[in-house]
Amino acid sequence: xQFADRLQPLRTNVFARMDVAKARTRAAGQDxxxxxxxxxxxxxxxxxxxxxxxxxxxxSTHGYLLHQGTRPFRQAAAQWYARKFGLAVDPDTxxxxxxxxxxxxGHMPLALLNPGDIALLPDPCYPSHPGGIHLASGQIHWMPxxxxxxxxxxxxxxxxxxxxxxxxxxxxxxxxxxxAIATPAxxxxxxxxxQRHDIAxxxxxxxxDWGFDGIEVPSVLQTDRDKTTSIEFFSLSKSYNMGGxxxxxxxxxxxxxxxxxxxxxxxxxxxxQGILAGAIAALSGPQDxxxxxxxxxxARRDAFVSALHGIGWPVQCPPxxxxxxxxxxxxxxxDSMKFGLELVEQAGVAVSPGIGFGASGEGYVRFxxxxxxxxxxxxxxxxxxxxx
Length: 388
Hints:
388 residues, alpha/beta, Aspartate Aminotransferase, domain 1, Aspartate Aminotransferase, domain 2, 2 domains
C-alpha cells in the first residue's frame, strides 16, 4: 500500500519515543513523575461542569451542531475578548469555534498555502505548527529563537528573496516551549512586517492569562486593531483547566475567519452542545479560577526553580506559562533525546526533550509544572541523583 509523501515529515516523533519509555518505566513498577505533558492537573470550573450536567438530559443537545448553532458561544467569546483586551469583536464575522486551538494551527495552512508556498515558523515551536504546513504541502522557513534575543525572531534575518512566496507567519507568545513573552512593540513590528509583505499573521494564544508577577500579556490584535492581517487562536485548556473538553476559538480578520470556516466545514462538525454550555459558563461566569490557577502555577514555578538552583542547575525563571525551559548541563548539550530517555528510565522523571520542538531546541529540555510543589521538589531530588 502506498501513502502520500506528505506523511514522511510527520513520522519522526520525539514525543512518541518518550511515551514508549514512560510505558516501560510504569510496566517495570517504577513510580513515574511525568513533567512532559502540558495538561493541567487542576479541575475545571464548577459552574462550567454544572452547565454541562444540566444539558446532558436534554435531547435537543444530542444532535449535530452546525455553525449557526454556535452563535451563543461566539457571542460569549467576543464579550470575553472585549472585557479583557478592550477591543470590540463581531461574533458573526470575526469569531470561529474550534475543536481546540490546535485545530486552527493545523487547518489554517490548508486555507492559505498552495504547494510550494512558504510559511515562516519560529524554531523551536509547538509541534502542530509545522505539522499543518506539511499537510498543506507548504515549505517552512525557520526563524531561530535565541536566548540573546529573548527568544523572539529577528525579522531582518529573513531572506528578502523568499518573501514573494511567503503567505503566513506563525507566532505564539507567551511561548511554548521557551516561556518567553512578547511586548506590544514586538507585535507592532510583526504586524508592520506582515502588512508590508502581504503575509497573514497567525498568533497561537493559549496563555493570555499566564503572565506572572504582575505581567500583562498582550494580544496581537491590540496592535492590529483593524484586524488587517491577523488572527489569534484561543483555548479553554489552560486558563480554565478544560483541556479534555477540546474547546478553542479563533478571533481576527474576517477573511481569514471565513477561509478557516470553509476548511472546517468539510472536516468536522462542532462539539457537543452541552460542552459549549460549559464553555459559555466558563467565559461568562465568575473568573476567580483564572487568578487561582495563575497563583498555583506561580508557586510551582518558584518552588521548582528554587530546587533546581539548589542542585546547581541555573535555569532562568520563566515569566509566563506552565513550563520551565532549561538549558541542559554540559554533558548533555548535544543530545536532549538521550537525556530524556535515560532520565525517565533511571530516575522515573519524564520531560520533553528540546529537540522535539525543533533544531534550535537541541541542548534544552522542557519541564511542565503539572504537579504540586512537593512532587516537583521530589522530581528535582531524583534529577540530582541522576546527574551525579
